[in-house]
Amino acid sequence: MSKLQILAVGDIVGPGAVSIIEKNLWQIRKEYRADAVIVNGENAAVGNGLDVASAKTILFSGADVITTGNHVWQKKEIKEYLDTEQKIIRPANYPPVCPGSGYTYCDVCGWRMLVINALGTIFLDALESPFAVIDRILKREEGRYDFAALDFHAEATSEKLAIANYFDGRIQIIFGTHTHVQTADAKIFPKGTGYITDLGMTGPENSILGVKSEMIIEKMTAKMPVRFEIADGPITLCGALFTYDTDKKAVISVTPIRKEFA
């Protein structure tokens, strides 16, 4: 096999989105002939974060790896689980004392894919530089993988583009998460890295980033504390399909995906 299809699914927001994943992900894998699926699940639980039940459902439903982000520690129960379930990773630039790992491996039709998760530091937590941390991982794991993928969970588009340019040709698949809005800039960099600034979210279509619109508007207009709730209604799944050519050792296409479910 010279071409591998890697499907990346954007931030799952709320139990309703988890249910859509449970009912449809295997069929979506078949539809796009995906050889591996990476899902960002950091907002899957009620009130943000990832709980064990949601994580198990996502994995059982067809995800090979679950990545996370700045809400990874929201549910206390996930901390111990991160130390035992290698298919779930947290941002690698959290301190080494934190539970879990910032990277893992995934077998893709006999090819070994290194999957890394990192958190941006612009407008987010003041963690170690993602550039330095990812560099160390690539050096440490050199010779142990055939190609690599990175979920860069970041706020600033400039930081995401900087990461993509810096690792062009060294990490073959780079996608951004966190902002919940799918971007229209899917591209292939000069040295063969497939990229999109943000996959978008898998969550309620009629919402503001997954939250009931009226609550966000109240927060922005009244400037008072508001307890956010996940919106109701149809769910949209957003992501991207990366085609990796094992002969060229490069991504040859990046296709944004957007599917609506009643």
Describe the structure.
Helix content is 25%, strand content 29%. It contains 6 helices and 13 strands. Strands 1, 2, 3, 4, 11, 12 and 13 form a 7-stranded mixed β-sheet that branches. Strands 5-6-7-8-10-9 form a 6-stranded mixed β-sheet, covered by helices on one side. Helix 2 links the parallel strand 3 and strand 4. Helix 1 packs parallel to helix 2. The mean pLDDT is 96.
Keywords:
262 residues; 25% helix; single chain; 6-stranded mixed β-sheet; alpha/beta; 7-stranded mixed β-sheet
Q: What is the count of helical runs?
A: 6
How many beta-strand segments? 13
What's the order of the H and E elements? EEHEHEHEEHEHEEEEHEE
Helix content: 10-25%
The share of residues in extended strands comes to 25-35%
Give a short summary of the structure.
With 262 residues, the chain is an alpha/beta fold. The chain contains six helices and 13 strands.
